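Entry 12.
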Amino acid sequence: MKKILILCTGNSCRSIIAEALLNKYIDGVQAYSSGVQASGRVNPNAKKVLEQEEAWLDSYHSKTLDKIMAIEFDLVVTVCDNAHESCPLFPKKTDVIHIGFEDPDGKEFKAFEVTLNEIKERLLPMVEKKLNGDKMNKNVFKTNEGVKISFTGVVAKQNIIKMVENCATGQCECMSDETKKKITNMQVTGVDGNVELQLTGDIAKEEIEKALAQSKVINKEK
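Predicted 3D structure (tokens):
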């Protein structure tokens, strides 16, 4: 189990959201969060947006670094400039990366939704790539329009396009005919190493995960 620390200033918004999303969506990791000047409270809107995402746990709380310094982290991610500039030394040689996000504290709830989506789109793929190196990783997210799949690591955009074309022309056998009928549009974006596939339609995340597990194109990438 890889251990990851998300570090910011107050540990009330961004780092709490990132901790929860990593624990919900990334297999094989245990994420923690802390603040260099922890506020001691979780912003109510941070809790609300995570509850909306079904990612909130009552164990999440704002805490200072001394509470977790005994843990040997595999990766530390700073999510604000202040934490990046004042990031302490850890007991072992730990990789530290910086992925900054605008602080939603004091703003309307919509700002917290934006922050959550940005963390999903930027931080989660970066962490996967950093931890797994030469492997292909995929995450499936339920969206308002359907399902989004994020491919990171060793993945060629052209192969994802090929998978979509096979599906559209009936050449793939990984997806059931029932699921295919539900999909109204498929769009591939991004570049090699960071590709997104957006599927539009009344489809369940579990249907797509099952199809990906059977895809010959995807399993060639592994």
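Annotation: Residues 109-132 form the longest helix (24 residues). The beta strands are 2-8, 29-35, 75-78, 95-98, 136-142, 146-153, 183-191, 194-201.
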